[in-house]
Every structure is written in structure tokens, then in C-alpha cells.
Amino acid sequence: TQLLEQSPQFLSIQEGENLTVYCNSSSVFSSLQWYRQEPGEGPVLLVTVVTGGEVKKLKRLTFQFGDARKDSSLHITAAQTGDTGLYLCAVRYGGSQGNLIFGKGTKLSVKP
Amino acid sequence: DSGVTQTPKHLITATGQRVTLRCSPRSGDLSVYWYQQSLDQGLQFLIQYYNGEERAKGNILERFSAQQFPDLHSELNLSSLELGDSALYFCASSTSGGPTGELFFGEGSRLTVL
């Protein structure tokens, strides 16, 4: 059983559309991170959320941490081709010094 | 550029062989992590070192081993290779392992076992 379940697994949309991807768990976490991985590269941190109900914005990307700190969502407004990539959520497992565990990711393709 | 350097970028070898993957962390980072990424399993944590000492182990096979040297670079050794070991292997580094610490990833080493 995966600690973090991400949905959808794959998403293909046209430029200009909005989308939301999800990261869910039955466990409670002190913080959660979102990374984006582009083809041929390693993941890059987008944001860290630490407070239940917290909303963070990064240009057209809006991240929300669930009130119970078990889930998170990433909403992209007016997607661009440059948003194409694998979106991964990650949490520390085993306490604050624990390892960073990743979900399997949502592979987003934005077509022109 | 994350500042994390991995070599080699690509490696093709045969079953039963042994390979070594190398990682140089960002300047000043004491923690090094190794991850394996495959299509079906996603990004799987293998092992973490902090300032030369093993800190945590994940789903690392007994055929795999790693170490971190005094200059903080790290090596991941994979032996008795099997077809299923074909994957992308990432190294990441961080300043500390705190709850909100960011991991900086290298570009990965793509291993193909034939």
C-alpha cells in the first residue's frame, strides 16, 4: 500500500485549461512538499505546506494542505506547455528527521 | 542547475555485472540520499547518509550498497545486476534532514541492464 496516493496518474489537456491534481493519505503529516520533474531531469521543489488548511500560490499554481493534514491539492490555472511534467507530492515519514517519501506522481501533458 | 552532480549519466551493462554510481552533493550539504525511479514503482527511497554515517535505509536490496566519503561525495554500488534493476538512479542532497528541508536532486544516472 502506497503511503501517498496521487490522482490522476495521467492528465492530458489543452493550453489554457485549468486542472487540479490530488495527493491523499490516511496518515497525518507535519508538512508536505510538491516537486515537479521534467523529462531528463531530477525533481525540483515547488512548495512546502505546513499548516492545516494552508493555501500557497506560486504564479498560476495554487497549493492547498487539507485541514486534517492528510491530503493536498495542486490547482493550475490557464495551463501552459511549460507546465508539462511529472508532479510529485512528498512527505517526511518517521518523524522530522525521517526520509522523504514520494507519491507515484501525476504525469501532466499540456498541448498547444 | 541544482548543484548536485551525478556520473555517469547513462550506463549499459549486462546481467550479473557490477556498477558504481557517483554523486557529488551541493557545496555545504551534509546529507546525501539515493533514490531509484522506475515506471511502475515511482521514486523509491534507497538510503541516506549524513556526514559520512548511514542515517536511514529504505527499500535497498542486499545486492546494493552505498557509502559517503570524508569529502562528502557518495557512491552507490550495484552488484549481481538483474534486468529489473534497470532504472533511473537519483542522488539528492540537503543541508539537514529537517521536516521542511528541501532536497536538491541531480540529473540522475540511467542504468540499462541487458
Question: What descriptive keywords fit this protein?
Answer:
heterodimer; A: 112 residues; mainly beta; six-stranded mixed sheet; five-stranded antiparallel sheet; 11 strands; globular; B: 114 residues; seven-stranded mixed sheet; four-stranded antiparallel sheet
What fraction of residues of chain A sit in β-strands?
Answer: over 45%
Largest sheet of chain A: 6 strands, mixed
> Averaged pLDDT of chain A, please?
93
Order of helices and strands of chain B: EEEEEEEEEEE
Describe the structure in your own words.
The complex is a heterodimer of chains A (112) and B (114). With 112 residues, chain A is mostly beta strands. Helices cover 0% and strands 54% of the residues of chain A. Chain A is built from no helices and eleven strands. In chain A, the strands form two sheets. In chain A, strands 2, 4, 5, 9, 10 and 11 form a six-stranded mixed beta sheet that branches. In chain A, strand 6 and strand 7 (61-65) form a beta hairpin. Chain B is mainly beta. Chain B is 0% helix and 53% strand. In chain B, a hairpin with a 5-residue loop joins strand 7 and strand 8 (74-78). Chain B has strands at residues 5-7, 10-13, 19-24, 31-38, 42-50, 53-57, 64-68, 74-78, 87-94, 104-105, 109-113. In chain B, 38% of the residues are buried. In chain B, strands 2, 4, 5, 6, 9, 10 and 11 form a seven-stranded mixed beta sheet that branches. The interface between A and B is medium-sized, with 24 and 24 residues.
